[in-house]
């Protein structure tokens, strides 16, 4: 009870202090004051704690969500590549909506806290949304390995999922950098529009009954991409630089190295979207340079002749 009161008092102090976008986080009373940020992160917690079982439980939950989507959504489409892709993206949309909206709401209600204490703030309850997302990345990564053809696109997605699991797990296992992970997961707000755009294109609703809505989603997707990916990444790098002397170099490497990797992925994806939606001429960026992001990993030689027309449609998404 005393710890709760101390945390509440500290949050009130934050509200009364001068606001800085990039601030040094010295608010150790907001979390577990174990000095974990000053030593190299340990990942033994994967195996000698309840962390991995909880992650697997959430992964099974996402499998159940996918099963429900498979049973009740896109039932008018015949079994095949297009329906499989629609089901997969719909599941991804559900994850993005839950995690993105939750974290955005948390930031709206705790804006000063989000800027002041990305390092030290931690509660077991608030960490659950991060563990839920780790479970999703485990589920989706396993689904990619089992059901998809090995390709550049699959490799990019697996790298993204692996890196996400690594970064998010670092926050939970160290009980530090929870709100830093929240900032990173705020990119899921962009993914809401990205997945909605994909669904509209794959289902061809963007060219039939939802042309106007599709255009709105297209522009909203670009705006959300800039705000929730590029701006957020700018904050993450700026904050890490400001707090560089207050963390172990391993955490700094994760912040800057991981930030660089995700920046490359985001720039490539942004160019892919601009090219696909007609904002970027093919003379500026060749199609060959965007091949790694084409969604062609759904196809295998065994049914290539059957799925050729569907493949052509999906490659245009």
From TrEMBL:
This is TLC domain-containing protein. The keyword Transmembrane helix applies. It is a multi-pass membrane protein. It holds the Pfam family TRAM_LAG1_CLN8. One of its GO terms (biological process) is phospholipid homeostasis. Residues 81-291 form the TLC domain. The lineage of its organism: Eukaryota, Metazoa, Ecdysozoa, Nematoda, Chromadorea. GO terms for cellular component: plasma membrane. Keywords: Membrane, Transmembrane, Transmembrane helix. The chain crosses the membrane at residues 43-65, 86-107, 150-171, 177-196, 216-241, 247-271. It is found in: Membrane. InterPro entries: TLC-dom, TLCD. PROSITE patterns: TLC. The keyword Lipoprotein does not apply.
